[in-house]
Every structure is written in C-alpha cells, then in structure tokens.
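Students often ask why we bother encoding 3D structure as a string. The short answer is that it lets us treat folding as translation between two languages. Here is a chain of 239 residues written in the first language.
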Amino acid sequence: MTLLTTRSYKNRMKKILLVNSSRHFFEEGKSLLDRKDFQVLLAPTAIEALQLHRKEHVNLVVSELDMPEMGGDVLCVRIREEVESRAVSFILICNDRPAETERASRCGANVFLKKPCSAKALLEQVEKLLVISIRKGYRVLLRAKVVGSKDDSTFFCTSQNLSATGMLIETDRDLNPGDRLNCSFYLPGSSHITAEGEVARAEKSPESKNNCGIRFINLSPEHQTEIEKFISESLTQTQ
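And here it is in the second language, the structure alphabet:
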C-alpha cells in the first residue's frame, strides 16, 4: 500500500453539512465531527444549506427538523427533487413527539434521531452512512500517559475502533478535550505503534466509563502505513 499524498487524502475527505439556527448545535456538532477525514460545513438556515449543497455537493446533511423559514423535512424533500443534488445522505434530528417523528419518517431522510440523542449515536449513524471503513471496530490494549500532567503515571485502556488518524478509547481515567497523550500499542504481527495523541472529545458511557476520541498528532508515515495496511487486510477478510 502506498502512502496517501496530501492531494489524494483531500479528494477522499467526506463533506458534512450541519444545518441549524442554534449555535449550540453548531458548536457541539462541529466538535464531534471535526476530524481529519471530515470537512464540516455550517449553514444557519435550510435555505442557505440548499444553496451551499448545490455548490459543494456534500456527502451528508445533518439537520434539525424545526427551523425558521424552512423545516429540515422540507429541505430533505427539496434536495431529493433535484437530480444533481439528490445523491446525499440525510440525518434529521427531531423531538420525540408523534407529529414530528411522522414528518421525519415521510420526507426521504435516511435516518432520523430523537432528542436527546447522544454524541455516540450521532457519530455511529454518520460513519454508517458515509461508509467510513477506516473506523472499523478493532480492540487493542493501549498504554498511555498524559503529557504534562502532575500525575504522569502510565495507564492502560482499550480501543473500540482505530484509523490512521485516531482511535476511540474506553478508560477509567478522566480525560478532557485538549489533553495530550503518549500512546503505545501493538497490531497483530507485532507491529509496535507509538504516537502522540490529543483528546478531541470525551463522554461518559452508561457503565460510567470514559469514551474518548483521540486524534493522532505527528504519526510517522511508517506507522500510518502499518495501520492502513492492517485495516485494508481486515476489510478484505470480512468481505
């Protein structure tokens, strides 16, 4: 497998359009989805979203149902009516009320999620719709240490999935967005991977575990190639 060039990497980057007049939705959604393999675009209204999608041809639209000027369900219908823009995945977020769920189910959206929906539930649907194979599940024992912490002891945690840009880990240790980690783990075949990582997001699981999205920083080309090769071989075996 050849190492991806900057140009080819950008060509495969997925575009996600967040549509909502709520600043909170923008901030939370962008924080969740702002990874190297996503380009997050923002539109405060459905009308602006329609115009932006016509220009950018995004891969996925995530929209609230109730918005001023035009609802998310009407936006979805409008997009599906246009030949050049209809080939896009669509997630609607609505309140858990019969009238709203009925609207969401009839407009042609791929998925609708009821509030309150967790960050994990949203991310799972995003990855499923975009077919982001580099996030296929892979569990590995990870040794890590927080950089610059007064408590600099090494701790162990388990990864829930892995990509060449980062991983999702489960740990008993409290971590916060922005924390830097020294990470070390082994791939099958005894490939030893070391990298510095940054906590991009963190949330509590129902079991009171900490689920943290880690973004790799300065991962060496050799280690990136090893991870991509492993994931490619894993996908081939499951097909």
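Translate back mentally: The chain is about 30% helix and 30% strand. Keep this in mind for the problem set.
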